[in-house]
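Review form for a predicted model. The reviewer records the input and the model, then writes brief findings.
Reviewer: anonymous (R2)
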Amino acid sequence: MVTVQPERVTLHRELPGRTSPFRVAEVRARVDGIVLERRFEEGSDVAEGELLYRIDPKPYQAALASAKASLARAQASVQSSKLLAERYATLLEDRAVSQQEHDNAAAAYQAALADVAAGKAAVQAAEIDLGYTRVTSPIAGRIGRAEVTEGAYAQRAQATLLATVQQLDPMYVDLTQASAELLRLRAQWESGALVPSGEGAKVQLVLEDGTLYGEEGVLQFSDVTVNPTTGSITLRALFPNPDKRLLPGMFVRARLEEGTRPEAILVPQQGLRRDAQGRASVWVVGADQKVEVRRVEAPRSVGDKWLITEGLAPGDRVIVEGLQKVRPGSEITVVPGAQAAR
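Model under review:
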């Protein structure tokens, strides 16, 4: 027999989910041209800024040279336009030229300055396009298969996909929880029966083969929209993945903290029985040392015990051994159990 006493218990829930990468970068062509070289091995780890492809740069080198020549021509024109405008300003004071001629010279100078600005922008654009012929990884991660080979024609308009890089450490795990279950939890949180763990709660992961993942994760957030098809919401947890054991798309089960029940009543599993309808009951010893059957609500187990939400109060004595010998109303001699309900 054990005497039940309230205790603080952290409750966990197991939810299904799938892994997804922390970041995904699709490497796409930003200029037109023939792919000259692939510089990575498929399935390898790449660093941020590492060269992945080289697209034929010759057309863009020629465009840059042309833009620089146009800029030099515009800069030369600025100098002559400036001198002419200053000369006309002096002559205007002596009334040697008309106001119209002076205004035309000043306007020509401003137009030359604008040509220089346009020339600098054209040079910058040509340098950018030339830089895009060197395709680099935008993030550090693991690169998948090559989507194009040497000799393929990459197009800016179609944004040709060249490869995909995924950051696998850390790794997201997207979990699904029924909205009805969330409503039940919130009702318990509001009543104070359960203290929520909230964001940052610890999460453990069970892999597809049933083994427990060695790293512990944390709950990031829960979605604000219920999926109308499944009636569930999405929770997201973040896990370290230094050994790359987790791969995108894996089916997993996550054990996360629902919250803490400050006044939980627990009963050893051998002390509870269920009838054909699944209703739970326990044998308790009353103050007169007589046995009675007590209906209880035992919605879930916690380790090797049942969590009792209704039917028992602190101090109740529950029989956990010799149940086949007791009968309702019989008087017994109490022998404390070796295992306390705690």
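Findings: Residues 35 and 55 are 4 Å apart (CA to CA).
Further findings: The mean pLDDT is 84.
Recommendation: see findings above.
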